[in-house]
What we know:
Elements: H1 12-27, E1 40-45, H2 51-62, E2 66-71, H3 83-93, E3 96-100, H4 104-113, E4 118-120, H5 128-142, E5 150-154, H6 159-170, E6 174-178, H7 188-201, E7 204-208, H8 211-215, E8 220-223, H9 236-243, H10 250-253, E9 261-264, H11 276-279, H12 286-305
Parallel strand pairs: 1-2, 1-3, 3-4, 5-6, 5-8, 6-7, 8-9
Helix pairs in contact: 1-5, 1-12, 2-12, 3-4, 5-6, 5-12, 6-7
Amino acid sequence: MKDLLRTQDLSRADVDLLLDTAGEFSENPLRSATALANKSVAIYMTKPSTRTRLASETAVAHLGGTPIFIRGDELQLGRGETISDTARIISGFCEALIIRTFAQSDVDELGVNSSIPVINALTDDDHPTQLLADWLTIRENFGKDISGRKFVYLGDGNNMSHAWLTMGAIMGAHVVAATPSGAWAPDAKVVEKAKEIAKKTGATIEVTNDPEAASKDASVLYTDVWMSMGDPESERAEKIKALSPFAVTENLMSITAADSIFMHCLPAHRGEEVSASVIDGPKSVIWREAYHRRTTIQALLYHLTRGELSGN
C-alpha cells in the first residue's frame, strides 16, 4: 500500500497497526525522532485548516522531518500545470504528500502519478485521517473489545458520514448514520461499499432517519457541522431546517449508554449541531480526539514511508 487515498483503502490489520503506533506516539512523541531526518513532507491545502495543518506539521517535525506547507494559490496548478506534472515534481523533492482539497478525483490522480505516499487529509467525499483519530479515541475509552456497542453519527450525510460508515465496517463495529432522507443522506454507493466490507468483518451498517432510535443505548454520539466548506449559502435555511431534528442535545445523550461519549471532528457550532452543554460537558472527548489527529498522522507517515501497510 503506497497511499491512503480513501478510508476503504485500509485493512483491519492496517488500522490496528496504526492505532498501536499512534498510541505509542501519544505517550512518547519523539519515539522515532529520526525517521524522516533530512527529509521533507509537502502539505498542500486548498481548504482552510486548523487541526489538520497543526497536526500534520507537528507530526512531520516529531519524526525529524521538515514540513513544507503549500497553499492552494502557491503552486503552478492554478496557472494550468497538470496534476500529473505536479505530482512528479513533488515526488522529486519530498518523502510524502499530505493533501486537503475539494475533489476526490484530484487526490486519486496525485496518487497515480506520485512515486511517494499521498495521504488524503480531507476531500468532499472522505476524511480517513480523522477516522483514525476517532477510533484511537474510541479505543482509549472502551478498549479493543467493542462487542455489543453501537457507534452513531448524526446529521449531514457528508464526507464524515461516509468515512464513519466505512471505518466502522472495517472495524467490525455496529455503526449507524442517522441523517435526513434525500439530498442530505449519505451517498448510496458509499453505504453499499460499507455493507460489502461488513459482510467480511461481521460489522452491522445502519442508515436511518430516526435520531432517537439511533441514539438509544449508543456508546458514541458523533456529529459534524451542518454547513460544510463549499456548501452554497442559498441552501442554508433549508438544510438547517432538515437537520435540526438531528442535533445532539442533552435529551439525546440521556438515552445513550451509561458510559457513552460525545465526539465531534470540529470546528463546532454550539447551538446548531450540538448543544453547548453537551460539547462542553463531562461526556465530551473532543479535545483528546483533536490531539490524536497528530498521533495518527504521525503513525501514517511512519508506516507508509516504510512500506509497512498492506492495504485492502
